[in-house]
Amino acid sequence: MTVLEQPGAYRPAPPPAWRPRTDPAPLLPDREPYRLLGTGAELDPTLLRTLHGHLVRGRRYNRQATALTKQGRLAVYPSSTGQEACEVAAALVLEERDWLFPSYRDTLAAVARGMDPVEALGLLRGDWHTGYDPYEHRVAPLSTPLATHLPHAVGLAHAARLKGDDVVALAMVGDGGTSEGDFHEALNFAAVWRTPTVFLVQNNGFAISVPLAKQTAAPSLAHKAVGYGIPGRLVDGNDVAAVHQVLSEAVERARRGEGPTLVEAITYRLDAHTNADDATRYRDDAEVETWREHDPVELLEREMTARGLLDEATRERAHEEAEEMAARLRARMNEDPVLDPMDLFDHVYAEKTTQLREQAERLRAELAAEGAEENGEGDER
Amino acid sequence: MTVLEQPGAYRPAPPPAWRPRTDPAPLLPDREPYRLLGTGAELDPTLLRTLHGHLVRGRRYNRQATALTKQGRLAVYPSSTGQEACEVAAALVLEERDWLFPSYRDTLAAVARGMDPVEALGLLRGDWHTGYDPYEHRVAPLSTPLATHLPHAVGLAHAARLKGDDVVALAMVGDGGTSEGDFHEALNFAAVWRTPTVFLVQNNGFAISVPLAKQTAAPSLAHKAVGYGIPGRLVDGNDVAAVHQVLSEAVERARRGEGPTLVEAITYRLDAHTNADDATRYRDDAEVETWREHDPVELLEREMTARGLLDEATRERAHEEAEEMAARLRARMNEDPVLDPMDLFDHVYAEKTTQLREQAERLRAELAAEGAEENGEGDER
Amino acid sequence: MTTATTGTGQDARKTETARKPATMAQALNRAMRDAMAEDPTVHVLGEDVGALGGVFRITDGLTKEFGEDRCTDTPLAEAGILGTAVGMAMYGLRPVVEMQFDAFAYPAFEQLLSHVAKMRNRTRGRMPLPITVRVPYGGGIGGVEHHSDSSEAYYMATPGLHVVTPATVADAYGLLRAAIASDDPVVFLEPKRLYWSRADWSPEAPEPVAPIGRAEVRRAGTSATLVTYGPSVPVCLEAADAAREEGWDLEVVDLRSLVPFDDETVCASVRRTGRAVVVHEASGFGGPGGEIAARITERCFHHLEAPVLRVAGFDIPYPPPMLERHHLPGVDRVLDAVARLQWESEWTERPEAFEGGTR
Amino acid sequence: MTTATTGTGQDARKTETARKPATMAQALNRAMRDAMAEDPTVHVLGEDVGALGGVFRITDGLTKEFGEDRCTDTPLAEAGILGTAVGMAMYGLRPVVEMQFDAFAYPAFEQLLSHVAKMRNRTRGRMPLPITVRVPYGGGIGGVEHHSDSSEAYYMATPGLHVVTPATVADAYGLLRAAIASDDPVVFLEPKRLYWSRADWSPEAPEPVAPIGRAEVRRAGTSATLVTYGPSVPVCLEAADAAREEGWDLEVVDLRSLVPFDDETVCASVRRTGRAVVVHEASGFGGPGGEIAARITERCFHHLEAPVLRVAGFDIPYPPPMLERHHLPGVDRVLDAVARLQWESEWTERPEAFEGGTR
Ligand SMILES: Cc1ncc(C[n+]2csc(CCOP(=O)(O)OP(=O)(O)O)c2C)c(N)n1
Ligand SMILES: Cc1ncc(C[n+]2csc(CCOP(=O)(O)OP(=O)(O)O)c2C)c(N)n1
Ligand SMILES: [Mg+2]
Ligand SMILES: [Mg+2]
C-alpha cells in the first residue's frame, strides 16, 4: 500500500451510493478547552516538577530577552510571556529524533528543546538569519513569513515516513497564521498523505493588533480540522499539564501512523507584540489583567503547592536556576559577535558563481582599504 | 455597527469564560446529499419546465462546443457534460443585479445567464481573453487560475454591501480548486465580513486526472464550512431541482445579510477534462457508465414524465430548440473573427506609455510592410 | 522606531498649516486621508491598518476619522487582501492595500500578476482595476530576514502595473495621491528607511509635483549622471556633494516611477553628461539597473564616453542587520563607480551622421 | 498536442538504443527516469504527474515504474507542493517538482523566494535544498491566457536560484540530470513549444553536455552575435541562416543557464563580432535582455560597434492565441534588429589603452 492509498479514502459515487469518508463526529474538537490543573485529575509529580522548572526558566528567559532589546543587544524580541506553557510543552513532548518547526515567536520552544539560547536568538540579534544548525536539535529555522513553515513540517514528516523512520514533526503557528493559504494547503496535504505531523495553533487572541474576531468566525480554530478530515483538539493553553497531555496524545497518534492532528491552545500574549509595539493602541489593560490571573506559571505553582509538590525551597531553587540562566545569557549576549562580512557570499550557492567571486573580491578590497584607513579597526561594528 | 462588528464575534477570554462563537452543530452539512427528484417532494411545474429547457440546451451546447474543437474553431473546450444541472441552476438562482463568478469550465452557466454563447466562448476560441463585457450580464471573467476568483467574489459582495446594494455574488469552483490557498482565504474573509457570497463547489470527482481521494480526506467538501463558521450544504449535483433549491436558499440567506454559504454539489464530468485530455488513462469506462445512469437531463425528464409534465411534443420542442441554438452557434463560430493586432497595445494601461506607443508603431510598420508584400491580404489569419 | 511617531499623524493635521518639517510618513498618511475625504470610494485595507495605524503608522488615524468600513483590518492573508481588493475594484471602489513588508507581498503575487496587472487587458479595457498596492521596501533599518527585500524587479517585469516610488516628502504625498487617483493599478513602493526623513512641507497646501511617469533632476551637473530612485536618492545626492572634491559635478536623476519609465529625462541628462551610473539597493543581477543601463545605452550609445555602470546590492539574499551596511550601495561605492567612468578616455563626440542610429 | 505522445515515453525506452529521432519531451522523461533509477532519494511530485503522466506527458510511466511514493499526484495547490518539497529536501530527499504551467507557479512564489532560494544562506550552508522546479514556459502553442507566460525575469532576480533552460534534445536530458544532481535549487524552464522538437539522440547513450553555467555557441559567425536561450534558439538559428542572404554571418550563443550567467562565452563572442542582439520571448521591459545587454556593454564597451539591441516580446500581457504570432520575436524582427546595428559605422578598434577599463 502506498502512502496515498489510505483506508477509507473516497472516490465519488452517484449520490444513492454516496457516503462520507469518515464519520465527522469524532473529528469535532472538545466542547470546551481541555484542562487538567484544578480538576483533581491524576498527574505525574515528576512531570509537573520538570514542567515547573521549564516554565520558571522560560518566563525569566522572556524577561531577559526583552531586557536585551533595551540594551541594544537584540534587534527585536517577540516575547512569549504568558504563552510559556505552550512553548515548553511543545518542546517536551518530542523525542530527540522528532522535529520542531517554530514560528518567529517560538525561540523559547527551541531553548526548551535544548538549544543554546544565544544561538536561538541569533536571528533577533541580527548576526545571521538562522543562528543555529537546524540538524543539531532538529529545529527548523524560525519562520518569519507566517504559516510558510507548515508545509515544510508536512514534507519532512512525509519524507521520514517514506524512509521508514518513526519521526514526528510538530509545527507551531499563531491564530493569525491560520488565515494564510499555506495553513490550509499544509493541513490538506498532511491529511491526504496522513503524515505524522502535529499542528499547534497558539491562539493568543491577537495577530499584532488584530483581535481574533476579525481573524475568524469559526466556532473555534480547532474546528478547522473537520474540513481536512483530521481530529481537532481544544486545550487551555495556559494549563501546561493539559497542553502536554493533548500534544503527547497527538504525537503518539502521529507516531502510530494515524495521521495529523490540529491542536488549538487558548492562551494570551501578556507583553506587546514585540518590544517595538505599543499594545495600548488596541487592547485594554483590564483585559490583560484578566489574563494575569490565569498565568501559566502561577496556575502550575498553585496546583503543585496544593498537592504538596512545591515547597518554598524547591520554588526558590527553580527561580535561582532561572536567575543563573539569565545572568549567563546576559553576559554572553553582552559580547560582540565576531562577524566576517565575507560570509555574505559563501552560502548563496554550493559554489560561488563567477559573479559572486568578483563581488566578494570587490568587498574584500573595500574592507582592506577601510582597514588601512582606520588603522586596523576591522569590520566588527 | 460596521460590517466588522458582527453579532457573536468573539474575543479571547481566559478559559473559564471560553465559549464557542457559535454552536457548530447547525453549520454541519446535510448528512447525505440533498435530493428532490424521485422523493415525491412538491415541485413547481413552471420551474421544472424552465430547468428542463435549459438542461436540454445546455447538453446540446456542450456537444456543439466539443465539436467545434474538432473543426479547429475552438482552441480548447473544457466540457461540463454531466454537470449541466449545476451550471444551469447557478445561473438561474441569481437576480439580474447579482454577480456570477465562473471558473474556466463554466461557460454554460454564463450562457444560461443570458450571455451570447459566441462571446462566452471568446477565451476558448482565442481571439481575446475575456470575450464579453463583464458588466453586461454581471459575469466576471472566466477564471483559469483555479480558485483565484473566489476572493474577487468576496470583495465584490463586500463592496456592494458597503454601498447598500442587496447584491449577491455566486462563485463556482471545482473539487480540485478547494485545495488552493485562495479558497481558504476567500471563505475566511467572507465569513469574517459576512459578505453575501455563495460558494458552489462542483465536486465532479476529478481534478484533471487526480481523483477526489488524493485531493481531500474530509468527510465531505461541505464540511470545510465549519472551519470558517459558515453553513455547509451538500446536494446531489445532478438533481437540478435540488441544486436550484439549495442555491436559492443560500442566495436568499446571503441577501438577508446572514452571510456566506458553502455548497458542495456532487456530480460527475462525463467527458474528458478537455478535448485534449485522454480520460482512459485515469478512469474506467465502468465508472463513467454508472454515472450515465444518474444523468441530470434524464433524471429530470424521468421525473417530469412521471408527473405528467413532459409529453413527447414538449420534449421534442425542447430538443428542437436546442438544435436550432446549436446550428446558430455553429454558423456563427464558422465565421472568422475580425481581429486588429493593434488592440494588443490598447488595453494595457488607461493611456499608452511612450514605450507602448513606440512598440505599436513598430508593429504597425511591420504589418504595413507585410500587407504591401502580400498585396493587401491584411492581418486576419 | 515606532514610538517616534505615536499619534503624530492626527496631531500633525490639526496644527501644521505652514511649511514645517514633516516626515515622509506624515505625508503618506495625509495623502490617504485627503484622498479618502475627497473620494468616498477610496478604501484602505490591510493587516493592522486600523487601531494600530499600521506597523509604520502610515494609516494612523484613518479608521478613527473614516470608520472601520473605510480603513479595515483584514484577516492575515495577503492573497486574500489583494484578491478581495480586486473584487471591490470591480464594483467601483478604489482600494488602497497595505502590504506589511516587501517579502509579505509575495503571497499575493499570483493575484497581482494574473489578475491585477492583466484585468484591464483581459477585458479589453472594460474592467480597469484602480488599485494601489503600498509596499514598504528596501533595507537599512536593521530589519531581520524577510523585512528588507527590494522587490521592484518583479513588479517592473509585469506589464500592466505602474511602479512608483517617492524619495522626497513632497513626492510621497503627490505621487500617492496620483497613484490612488490613477485608473491603473499602481505598486507604490515606500522606501522604509526614508519614512522618518524630513523636509519642509505643508499638509494644508502640499506643493504640486510632476505626474507619475516623469523623472526629476534633483541636482544638475555636467560630469556624469547618477540615475536612481527611492532610498538611493539621498545616497546619490550625498555622493554628488562628495564628488565635488574630486572635481566631478554630478547630475542626479530621481526616476520616481520605474513604470512608466521616463526615457526622455534620463536620456537628455546622459546625452548632456556622456556618462552614467545607475544606483539601487536591489541585487544587481536581474535587477532594475540592467533594464535602465540597457535603455540608456540603446538610446545614447554615441553620446557615451564609457559604459553605463551599475552600483547595486550584491547578488545575495538580503543580509542580516549586522552586515547590511556592507551590502547597501553607499557613497564610496558610488564614487568608486564614477571613478571608473574612463575619464582618461580620448573619446570625442562622433560626427552627426551616427546620431540617427540610436533609435 | 497530447495524443501525439501517448505512451511514447515508456516505449521509447525499450526500443531505442541507437541515435534516432527523439523529442525533447522524451529526453526530459528519460532524464527523470534515469535519475530516479540511480538515486532512490529522487522523488517527483506535482499535479497529474502520476497516472496521466503530466499534461505534457513528461512524467509518463514514472509512477508505473517507481510507484506512487516516488512519483506522486499531489493535491491541487502549488505553494503546498513546493512547501512540501522543501520539507522533503530538509530530510534528505531530492524532490523534482512539476508546475503545470508557467503562470501556475505564481502561487508558489512565496515558498520559492522566501525559502527555496534562501534556505542555504539562512542556515549558513547547513540546510541546502536540492530541489528542481520544472516549469513549462513560454508561448507559441496557442494556449489560452495564463498558459504562455515567460516568467524567467522573476527567477533571475532571485539570488539563490539557478535558472536553467534547454533548447536542444541533448541539453534537455543533460541539463535536467545536472539540475536534479545539483545541491542548489534549480528552476528548470522547459520551452513548451520545443517539447515536440526532434533530434537524433540516444536514450541509452545520451551524449554528455556542458555543465550548468556554460553557454554554447550553436553557430559560429563573424558579423554579429545573437544571444538567446530556450524557445528563441531555433528562431535565431533560422535568422542566422536567412542572414547569409544579406551578407551577415551571425554567431548564435545559447545561454542554457541564465543563472549562473556565462559572461566568458558571451563576451568572447561579442568581442569577436563587435555587435550583439539579445533575443527572447519575455517582455522587453524589465526582462532578461536588459541584464544581458547591460552586462555585455559593461564588459565589452570598447569592442562594440553599436549598442546591444534587444528583440523581445512587447511590454504587454501575453496575447490570445490568434494574436500571439504578432508578439513573438520571429526571424524578421531579429533580422531587422541586426540591420540596425549601424553597419555604416566608421568605428574602428580603439587603442589598447582603453581595454583595461571594461572590468
Ligand atoms: C506572510 C506574513 N505576513 C505578515 C507578516 C507580519 N507579521 C508578523 S507577526 C504578525 C502577526 C502574527 O499573528 P499570529 O499568527 O497570531 O502570531 P502571534 O504574533 O500572535 O504569535 C504579522 C502580521 C509576516 N510575518 N508574514
Ligand atoms: C492555480 C492553477 N493551478 C493549476 C491549473 C491547471 N489546471 C487546470 S484545470 C485543473 C484541474 C481542476 O480541477 P477541479 O478544480 O476539480 O475542476 P474541474 O476541472 O473538475 O472542473 C488544473 C490542475 C490551473 N488552471 N490553475
Ligand atoms: Mg496571535
Ligand atoms: Mg473536479
Primary descriptors:
heterotetramer, A: 381 residues, alpha/beta, 2 domains, five-stranded parallel β-sheet, two-stranded antiparallel ribbon, C: 359 residues, Rossmann fold, seven-stranded mixed β-sheet, five-stranded mixed β-sheet, 13 helices, 14 strands, 34% helix, globular, disordered C terminus, binds thiamine diphosphate, binds magnesium ion
3D architecture notes:
- The complex is a heterotetramer, with two copies of chain A (381 residues) and two copies of chain C (359 residues).
- Chain A folds into two domains: 309 residues, 3-Layer(aba) Sandwich (Rossmann fold); 34 residues.
- Helix content of chain A is 41%, strand content 8%.
- Chain A contains 13 helices and seven strands.
- In chain A, strands 1-2-3-7-6 form a five-stranded parallel β-sheet, sandwiched between helices. In chain A, strands 4-5 form a two-stranded antiparallel ribbon.
- In chain A, helix 1 packs antiparallel against helix 11 and helix 2 runs parallel beside helix 9.
- The termini of chain A are far apart.
- Chain C is of the alpha/beta class and 359 residues long.
- Chain C folds into two domains: 194 residues, Thiamin diphosphate (ThDP)-binding fold, Pyr/PP domains (Rossmann fold), CATH 3.40.50.970; 139 residues, 3-Layer(aba) Sandwich (Rossmann fold).
- Helices cover 34% and strands 18% of the residues of chain C.
- In chain C, the strands form three sheets. Chain C has a seven-stranded mixed β-sheet, with helices on both faces. In chain C, strands 9-11-10-13-14 form a five-stranded mixed β-sheet, sandwiched between helices.
- The N and C termini of chain C lie far apart (48 Å).
- In chain C, 70% of the residues are buried.
- The chains are: A alpha/beta (381), C alpha/beta (359).
- Chains in contact: A-B, A-C, A-D, B-C, B-D, C-D.
- Chains A and B meet through helix 8 and helix 10 of A and helix 8 and helix 10 of B.
- The complex binds thiamine diphosphate (2 copies) and magnesium ion (2 copies).
- The site of one magnesium ion has 6 residues of chain B, from strand 4.
